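Lab notebook, bench 4. Still working through the backlog of constructs that have no structural model yet. Next entry is a single chain of 195 residues. Request: give me the structure tokens for it.
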Amino acid sequence: MFGEKVIELIKEAERNRDTIDQYNDDKVRQIIEEMHVLFKMNMADANATSENKSLWTTVQVRHSALERNKRCLLAYLYNRMNKIRTLRWEFGSVLPSDVRELLSDSEYTWFSKYSTNLAAYMRSLGQDIGYSGIDLTENLRPPKSLYIEVLCLSDYGKLELEYGDVILLKKNSRHFLPTSECQTLIRQGILKQIT
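Model written out:
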């Protein structure tokens, strides 16, 4: 039956709204092959409709199936693109290897270009007033306090704070740091906020 694979693909994407799954290359390829078959069948029947008008309904039904497959496939890809965009804001310009493996090569290329464009935009912010840029990914949510207590989950090394202080981040060490300095490291899993 036409359209079953694309419905499975949409259900798969809908099942995991907040996370990104492995790119389903096999199913996407099968859907595209199905669309090619539908198109060829329609071309053959469309050429024969001048002789047999009863084929016109069949051509229209197949064309509707083609359009539905196309819309659903584009919805699947658009949904993944939005999730990848969110990953850039959460993890920064370097994705963890387990997340990277879930993306197709084309998706990773898109992620890299988006990351480059976002970084260029952030560098351009504030240049007219002599500031070297603003990191928009730093505070995704407004901080509740200016300083937070954090636990270092892995050996990170030296961290230079905005005001020039240097702090050594070793595994299991606790620090009381400015929230703005910690957000990126917390998202990367290096630091954990202690409440």
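Notes after review: The mean pLDDT is 87. The CA atoms of residues 98 and 146 lie 32 Å apart. Flag for follow-up if needed.
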